[in-house]
Specification:
mainly alpha
Length: 84
């Protein structure tokens, strides 16, 4: 469980939903396993101390990068809608 908290209070539920939707999962906590599988990284439930920092970064980077791209897309669509 991450100790980081979203800047906007109450937004965690929406962020978890976005994460699950982007990776076609029902459970947001399952996303990291799907991302690891796509990267060819062996990630199991429980302790994963044998993973290198590089491997762990690939998993988190895949998830975070996808979420950021989606947020940028949503912001661009919102701006374009306001210009009309």
């Amino acid at each position: 469980m991450s100790k980081r908290k979203p800047l906007v209070p109450g937004s965690q539920r929406a962020l978890n939903k976005m994460k699950a939707d982007l990776f076609h999962q029902e459970d947001p906590s399952a996303v990291k396993y799907e991302a690891a599988k796509e990267q060819g990284i062996s990630l199991t439930q429980g302790y994963n101390g044998e993973l290198s920092a590089r491997e762990a970064g690939k998993v988190g980077g895949k998830i975070g990068g996808s979420m950021i791209r989606e947020m940028i897309k949503m912001a661009e669509e919102s701006l374009n809608a306001k210009k009309r």
